[in-house]
Amino acid sequence: MNSNIRPLVTTAISLVAVVTSIPESRAADLTLDGSGYYNLDSREYRSTGRKLQSGRYTSLGANYYHSAEIGMDEINNNSTVGSGSMSFELWAMPYYGANRGPIVMTYGLSPLRGGNYFSDVIAEGEAVSLNRYAFPELDLFEYTRKGWKWRDVLVFSEDDLL
Prior knowledge:
By secondary structure, this protein is mainly beta. It has a single domain, classed as Immunoglobulin-like. Helices cover about 10% and strands about 50% of the residues. The strands form two sheets. The protein has a four-stranded antiparallel sheet with strand order 4-3-6-7, with no helix packed on it. A three-stranded antiparallel sheet has the order 1-2-5, with no helix packed on it.
């Protein structure tokens, strides 16, 4: 009987080791800290079908785009566990304090070990051109076992319209 239990215990330990080592699986306490910025170039061009973003979305559709740059002083993992992959995003909100609006630019970030941070994050790429004024905000999402989860936001003042 003892010989039948040993393979079961070994298999159970192996499964636990595999499940705990799967990437993109942990939920971490991630925050945007310090100041952030965005910069949209005034020249516009039509999409060529190549990837224009990374992160949660690799293409926001065939549209006009601007050259863009978004940045943040620090992205911190305040927990002891590592994070999943992250998506650093520029959103255009229809009014100050809104919680829904179009995503203008996305940028993928690699997982971050517990207690560590990314400093002076600069994301360069292309951003969707808007045909109206909008209120900008920077959002941070993390990929977990349950999919993409929102983690933090930096809302710009009402004077900083896109």
